[in-house]
Input
Amino acid sequence: MIDKENFHPLNYIKKEEYSGSMDGMRYMLKRIKGEEEDRIKVTIWPEPYGIHKTPEEEKQSIEVALTEAGVEEAADWLNAQYEEQKDRWRESLRKPWV
Output
């Protein structure tokens, strides 16, 4: 689970992609340029591959504001998805790495 008290990647996200994993669930937070305002795209997918080698149908995404509140919303969503799909993440850890 992501500890929101210690999850402060906003300044990093403004410059680079921020990625991590939790027991079979990989995630990435990426700045998306908008016409009116920039946003954060939050994407999750199962192990074992990186985001570019994982089929699109295996990924889920949301967009949140490029703010501290948006980062908190992202952490809440990541934690919820981890809990709701825990079997999926555990199963992905059992797959052989090719």
Q: What stands out?
A: Strands lie at 18-22, 25-32, 39-46, 60-65. The mean pLDDT is 93. The CA atoms of residues 42 and 74 lie 7 Å apart. The longest helix spans residues 68-84.
